[in-house]
Design goal:
- This protein is mainly alpha-helical and about 120 residues long.
- The protein has one domain.
- It is about 75% helix and about 5% strand.
- It has a two-stranded antiparallel sheet with strand order 1-2.
- The protein is globular, with a radius of gyration of 14 Å.
- The two termini are about 10 Å apart.
- About 35% of the residues are buried.
């Protein structure tokens, strides 16, 4: 059986690396895969989250990161479908409907890891 703490840390590390790739990629385009809207401000936020994910995945503890990213993803995902809020998110961060769905899905998965994988 896998060490439970390692599951939390491994998930945080993988998510951190993916966020880092997306953060860097977002400086060179306004749409990732022609679907997910990004901009420089959003890319900076992805890189900050990536740094925390990579840190907790290698040296820290993963659960706090997973919980935080989970709730941020769920909130961003829900706000992406609320009229007015979605316009603000689009204008500020270039967040469109597909990325709102992605935020919601990743938020739920991250919370599933946080709440479902306990020591």
């Amino acid at each position: 059986m896998a060490n439970i703490a390692n599951v939390q840390k491994t998930y945080a590390l993988i998510l951190g690396v993916v966020l880092g790739i997306i953060g860097i990629w977002g400086f060179f385009t306004t749409s990732i895969l022609g679907l997910f809207g990004v901009n420089a401000f959003q890319s900076v936020l992805h890189l900050i989250a990536a740094a925390f994910g990579i840190y907790v995945g290698t040296k820290g503890k993963g659960p706090g990161f997973n919980q935080s990213i989970g709730w941020i993803g769920v909130v961003l995902g829900i706000l992406g479908f609320i009229p007015g809020a979605n316009t603000l998110l689009f204008n500020l961060l270039n967040i469109n409907a597909p990325i709102s769905v992605l935020h919601l899905v990743l938020g739920v998965i991250s919370l599933g890891v946080y709440y479902g994988v306990k020591e």
